[in-house]
Amino acid sequence: FFFSSRRRHTRSLCDWSSDVCSSDLPYPYPMSAANPIDALFDNSLRAAQQPAWPDKTALDNAISTLRSLPPLVFAGECDNLKARVADAAAGRAFWLQGGDCAETFAAATADSIRNRIKTILQMAAVLQYGASLPVIKVGRMAGQFAKPRSNDLEVRGDISLPAYRGDAVNDLEFTAEARIPNPDRLVRVYNTSSATLNLVRAFTQGGFADLRLVHEWNKGFVKDSQIGTRYEAMANEIGRALDFMRSAGVNPEEFKTVDFFASHEALILEYEKALTRIDSRTGLPYDVSAHFVWIGERTRQLDGAHIDFAKKIRNPIGVKLGPKTTPEDALTLINELNPDREPGRLTFITRMGAGKIRELLPPLVNAVTKSGAEVLWVCDPMHGNTYEAPSGYKTRRFDDVLDEVKGFFEVHQKLGTHPGGIHIELTGDDVTECVGGGAEISHEDLATRYETACDPRLNHTQSLELAFLVAEMLRDRR
Ligand code: PEP
Ligand code: CO
What we know:
Layout (H helix, E strand, L loop, with lengths): L35 H5 L15 H13 L6 H15 L4 E6 L10 H22 L3 E6 L12 E4 L2 E4 L21 H22 L19 H23 L12 E6 L3 H6 L1 E3 L6 E3 L4 E4 L9 H8 L4 E5 L5 H11 L8 E5 L6 H15 L4 E4 L7 E2 L5 E2 L2 H18 L5 E5 L34 H18 L1
Parallel strand pairs: 1-2, 1-14, 2-5, 5-8, 8-9, 9-10, 10-11, 11-14
Antiparallel strand pairs: 3-4, 6-7, 12-13
Helix pairs in contact: 2-5, 4-5, 4-12, 9-10, 10-11, 11-12
């Protein structure tokens, strides 16, 4: 359904594509452009947080390779997700987005991918069962390989090196060589995303996500007995409900597969632009590297290249909103990114910090509501609650994460708006990166299994525990 945007040097306007002539495109492309993608973005705008690629030829080669590769997702799937986002924005569904802060090539193994999918499926079952709402399952997965950094340099002792910017750019290893940005990595991002997404699709469409396996997802998994027991009890109830339905002759297809969407931060614009294609159904541009992409807190400058990028693609998109966001910023973002007020187009992912959300969120929500615009409000309770443990590990308290979600629900309850979803950094493994939770991970425990390449993630048990607590908030709201 897509065609490659690689052939740039074409003679006529129409021969770069066999199935769509650019003069048929509804989008206002300049007539001088041989390929509308080249003319789509304003390349003169400043792009924050971009790597300084030392080898421009290697970069050009990577870009033209990426441009020749097939899309990872189909634009129709992005539209389906957009419709689901619109449901969540209207309070008819709940958005669950989770995965690594930074995926790595090394961790794209069957076990790691399966454990993350299981965790999200389990959380979704808990939320759906507890709240009787459809849950939209979205992985921070199959593309989440690039990181914005607060400091360009990382200093250890008296050595200072370029910061790690994600496997898309350089290597985590603390050597000068490893930290040189290498554009060949962008092609590896595509390949690893493709392999990950293939397994995600196989698991979620091929029988593994069947609701009747709700017990299976937990096998050999939950170490913490309290959460494990609670999950098993819920799984038993779901099992009984399914048996009851089957005995009545009802065995719907809907229980056998799930829709699982891929998302990541659209950070490295060379990558995202190279994977932006014209959808042959509609003639409109989509970023086919994921179903949903978001713009981070550090790159959402209103006059910057990232917002220009987000403006031009037709995917459902998100923007992170941190504590400095003003109501005017929120309204301008809506006007820029969704001038036509298309339902499901725009998600605001707030990350204020547990201590600030009750004070900082209401003015934003009020301004948006008053404007008449509809956005999906999602709570990221991770990025406003990071601190350094005495041992030097970056961590987060489970209680702070929980409290930010609570504050998010309280604010929306008070204002009569919808707490539409959560955005969580998590992994399916028993890591020790965030403190607290039922297993009471302490500052001293962090060293036991601290594996993240970037920010600390909830482990499997903490993720399930959070899901149970959020399910209660959702149920109480109704
Ligand atoms: C992230 O989601 O990993 C991230 C960097 O978030 P933010 O842009 O909100 O800081
Ligand atoms: Co993060």
